[in-house]
Write a structure and sequence with these properties.
Bound molecules: adenosine-5'-triphosphate
Strand content: 15-25%
InterPro entries: AAA+_ATPase, AAA_N_dom, At3g28540-like_C, ATPase_AAA_core, ATPase_AAA_CS, Mitochondrial_chaperone_BCS1, P-loop_NTPase
Largest sheet: 7 strands, mixed
Distance between the termini: 104 Å
Helix content: 40-55%
Structural class: alpha/beta
Family: Belongs to the AAA ATPase family. BCS1 subfamily.
Organism: Tagetes erecta (African marigold)
CATH class of the largest domain: Alpha Beta
Catalytic activity: ATP + H2O = ADP + phosphate + H(+)
Shape: elongated
CATH architecture of the largest domain: 3-Layer(aba) Sandwich
GO molecular function, one term: ATP hydrolysis activity
C-alpha cells in the first residue's frame, strides 16, 4: 500500500502529504454528498485529481483454471525491467536449451516502463478469496498510465508488450529438431551449441548473414505489405567440413527457430512432400542437406522434358500413369513446394539447401526468389582460423599466426580439419603445441599438393603424351 501510495504521488508530481489530503477530502465527499451526485460527478472529479487510467490483466481466464496468455506475455515482457527495478523477485528455472533463470515481480511489487517517451507503471497484485469450500489467490497485473496517453497505450504500447513477450517466450522455449520418418515428422529436443560467435568464417560475411536473418525475422509487416509469403531461401554450398550443418544450427539458435530436417529420399512422392511441408510450424528452418544427393532432381527434369517431347496421345497418358505409380519426388514437385506451399501457411519459415556441388544443381532450383541468398562456405581462411584459435585456445594473437596465415593462403584445409588440429590435448591448453600441430598438418597438405601436381604434370608431359 505504501509503495502504491508513493508511486501514485510520484506520478501526480505531488508530495505524499498533498495526495493524502486529496484522498481525505474525497472520503469526506463520499460520506456527505448524495450518492447519485457522486456518481455523476465522480468521473470528472477523479480525472481532475487522479488523471490516470488503470487496466487489470488477470492471471486466470474466466474459466479460472487456465492461465491467461496475455498475463504470461506481460510477465515475460517485464522480466528485463523487473531484474533491474524490482526489490523483491520471484525466480524460476526455464527448461530451455540454456536452463536460464527467469525473474518476475513478486506480489505487490511495482516497476515502470517507457514507450515512445511515455512512462507507464506496472504493479503485480494478489488478492485472496475465501469461499465456503476453499480459499484461493487471484493474481493480476495492473497497468497505470496518464489519461493523455490513452490512445497510444491502448493501441501501440499494449501491442508492443504482447508481441515482445511472445517473441521472448518463443526464443526461450525448448526447441525441437524434427525428422521425417514413414511420412511423419518425429522430433527430439534440439540442443546444438553452435552459434555465430563460434562459427569460423569471414566476420564481414557473418555479420551480413546475421543482419539478413534479423531483417527477415522482423519482416512480418514488410512481407504482408509487398504481398509475398514470409519465407526466405538460403543455399549453403562448399566442400565437406566447411560448416554448412553447423551454420544451420547457428541460424536456428540465433533466431530461436525449430529445425525440420527433411530427408527427401524418404519422401514417397510430391503429395507426401506437400503434406509434410504444410505440417511444419512457423518460426522454423526447413533444411534439405546435400540436395544434390537427395534424389536425381536434375536429370529427372531433363529426362521428363525429353519424354514429353517424344510422347503423344494415349502413350503419353499411359506413361504418366506408370510414372505416378513408381515416381518419388520430382524437381517440379519440389519447386512447387518451395514456391507455393508457404502462401497457404502463415508465419515465417526459412528453407535451407546445402550442397557440396553447387554446379550440379538445376538452375531453376536455386534461382533468386527461391534461394534468395547464396552463401559459400570456403576452405579455412585466416579470419576463420582466428575464430577457431579464440574458441579452442583462448588466443587473440600469437607470433605463430603469421606462419599459419601464409600456409592457409597456400593450401586448402577445411575449418573442420583446422579445428581438429587445434584441439587441445591438455587442460589448460598448450597453445604453442596446438599451433605447431596445425602448422605441421598444413605443411603436410602443402607437400602432398605439390607432389600431386608434379605427378599430374608428369602424366601430362610424359613420353606417351602426344604419341599415337
Ligand atoms: N566454419 C566452421 N566453424 C566452426 N566449426 C566448424 C566449421 N566448419 C566445420 N566445423 C567443425 O567441423 C565439423 C563438421 O562440420 P559440418 O558438419 O558443419 O560441415 P559440413 O560443411 O556440413 O559438412 P558436409 O558437407 O560433409 O555435411 C563440425 O562439427 C564443426 O565442429
Amino acid at each position: 500500500m505504501i509503495n502504491h501510495f508513493n508511486i501514485a504521488a510520484n506520478m501526480l508530481g505531488l508530495s505524499g502529504s498533498v495526495l493524502a489530503t486529496a484522498m481525505f477530502l474525497w472520503a469526506i465527499i463520499q460520506q456527505y454528498f448524495p450518492h447519485n451526485f457522486i456518481n455523476k460527478r465522480s468521473k470528472r472529479f477523479l480525472t481532475l485529481f487522479y488523471p490516470y487510467i488503470q487496466i487489470t490483466f488477470n492471471e486466470l481466464t474466466s474459466e479460472r483454471f487456465r492461465r491467461s496468455e496475455a498475463y504470461s506475455d506481460i510477465e515475460t515482457y517485464l522480466r528485463k525491467t523487473t531484474s533491474t527495478q524490482a526489490k523483491r523477485l520471484k525466480a524460476e528455472v526455464i527448461k530451455n536449451n540454456t536452463q536460464s533463470l527467469a525473474l518476475s515481480m513478486d506480489d505487490h511489487e511495482e516497476v515502470s516502463d517507457e514507450f515512445n517517451g511515455v512512462k507507464v507503471y506496472w504493479a503485480s497484485r494478489k488478492t485472496v478469496h475465501d469461499t465456503q469450500s476453499q480459499s484461493y489467490e487471484k493474481r493480476y497485473y495492473k497497468l497505470t498510465f496518464h489519461n493523455r496517453y490513452r490512445q497510444l497505450v491502448l493501441t501501440d504500447y499494449l501491442k508492443h508488450v504482447l508481441k515482445q513477450g511472445k517473441e521472448i517466450k518463443l526464443k526461450n522455449r525448448l526447441r525441437k529438431l524434427y525428422t521425417n520418418n514413414g511420412g511423419q515428422w518425429t522430433h527430439v529436443v534440439f540442443e546444438h551449441p553452435a552459434s555465430f560467435q563460434t562459427l569460423a568464417m569471414d566476420p564481414v560475411k557473418k555479420q551480413e548473414i546475421m543482419d539478413d536473418l534479423t531483417t527477415f525475422s522482423n519482416g512480418e509487416e514488410f512481407y504482408k505489405r509487398i504481398g509475398r509469403a514470409w519465407k526466405r531461401g538460403y543455399l549453403l554450398y562448399g566442400p565437406p567440413g566447411t560448416g554448412k550443418s553447423t551454420m544451420i544450427a547457428a541460424m536456428a539458435n540465433f533466431l530461436g527457430y525449430d529445425i525440420y530436417d527433411l530427408e527427401l529420399t524418404a519422401v514417397r512422392d510430391n503429395t507426401e512432400l506437400k503434406r509434410l511441408l504444410i505440417e511444419t510450424s512457423s518460426k522454423s528452418i526447413i533444411t534439405i542437406e546435400d540436395i544434390d544427393c537427395s534424389t536425381d532432381l536434375t536429370s529427372q527434369r531433363k529426362e521428363s522434358k525429353v519424354l514429353e517431347e517424344k510422347e503423344s496421345g494415349s502413350t503419353k497418358k499411359q506413361n504418366k500413369e506408370n510414372e505416378s505409380k513408381t515416381s518419388k519426388v520430382t524437381l517440379s514437385g519440389l519447386l512447387n513446394s518451395v514456391d507455393g506451399i508457404w502462401s497457404a501457411c502463415g508465419g515465417d519459415r526459412l528453407i535451407v539447401f546445402t550442397t557440396n556441388h553447387v554446379e550440379k544443381l538445376d538452375p531453376a532450383l536455386i534461382r533468386r526468389g527461391r534461394m534468395d541468398k547464396h552463401v559459400e562456405l570456403p576452405y579455412c581462411g585466416f579470419e576463420a582460423f582466428r575464430v577457431l584459435a579464440r574458441n579452442y585456445l583462448y588466443l587473440e594473437t600469437h607470433e605463430l599466426f603469421e606462419r599459419v596465415r601464409g600456409l592457409l593462403e597456400e593450401t586448402k584445409m577445411t575449418p573442420a580439419d583446422v579445428a581438429e588440429n587445434l584441439m587441445p590435448k591438455t587442460s589448460p591448453p598448450d597453445q604453442e603445441e596446438c599451433l605447431m600441430s596445425l602448422i605441421g598438418a598444413l605443411e603436410k597438405v602443402k607437400e602432398d599438393a605439390t607432389r600431386n601436381k608434379a605427378v599430374e604434370n608428369k602424366v601430362k608431359n610424359g613420353p606417351l603424351n602426344g604419341s599415337i
